Structure formats: C-alpha cells, structure tokens
Amino acid sequence: MKRITLATLVSAAAVAIALPIAAQAAPHGGHHGGDHMKAMDTNGDGDVSKEEKAAFRTAMFNEADTNKDGSLSQAEMTAHHAAKEAARKAERQAKMFSALDADGDGSVSAEEFANPPMRGRMAKFDTDGDGTLSDAEREAAKAARHERRGKWHERRGDKPAPPPEAE
C-alpha cells in the first residue's frame, strides 16, 4: 500500500513539474505563448530572474492550492489546469467570434459566417491580395513552414527538418 501511495505521489510531482516546463520549452512558448514569460517578467526588463520565477511559481501554487493547506492534491492540480484551459478556450472563442462579426453588431449573420475575412497567415500568404490562395502561394507557405521548423530544430540541436519535396 505504501509503495502505491509513494508511486502516486512521485508521479503527481513529476507531472506537476514537467507540465509547466514542457509548456515553456515547446515551440512558440507552448499553449501559453509569450504571455507566460511576460507574466514572470514583473519588472519588464525583458529578463526573468530567479526571484521573478520563484514569485511567479509561488503565486501559481497559491492559486492552485484552493483549500490553502500548503500542498497540492491531484484534484486541485487537475481543477487548476482545467480552469486555465477553459479560460484560454473562452478567450480563443471570443477572438474567433469577434473576427467573424465583421460589422461589430454582436452577432454573426449567415453572410458573415459564410464569408469570413482572410486574416493572419492566410492573408500573409495571399501575396497577390485576391482573397484566395493559389497553388504557388500554398507551396510558398509550405516552404516557409518547413524553414521555420528547420530553424526550431537547429536551435534545439536536432537534425534540421528535411526540405519540402517537389510535387
């Protein structure tokens, strides 16, 4: 019984430590984006000191420790992660809705839904500005994606990603 309890505690601790680290190490800042690092950089100097990181982690711990007993249970950690993910999802949905609501009237008409504006990456790769992506524009986007992935792998010390194959 003691072995199972110990194994469970060790596993929970490993997950608790690994998730934030993995999120920070993931490309593009993981699911937190740059906001996670910005939140830690409390003095805004662009660097995160050991003290800033410790303060941030303490605040995160205190937020997750809902019963304020000084330790995190698996249930508290699961609830904390679920709440954070729900907040991120709600934010993404609000942004998507806002993007579709072209006239800003607080509702999305059938016309707005059927004809969303081209934004972000799609607009970036629509080099001729005609509102559609041609085969050549899609290939250029694919090549750019492969180049970005290759640079990321090189920074990590991995082998560079293979170049896109000609079709």
From TrEMBL:
Keyword list, A-Z: Signal
The record places domain EF-hand at 52-87, 88-123
Q: Could you say which residues form the signal peptide? A: 1-25
What SUPFAM superfamilies does the database record attribute to this sequence? EF-hand
Q: Where is the composition biased (Basic and acidic residues)?
A: 135-144
Which segments show compositional bias classed as Basic residues? 145-154
Fetch the PROSITE patterns from UniProt: EF_HAND_1 (PS00018), EF_HAND_2 (PS50222)
This chain belongs to the protein called: EF hand domain-containing protein
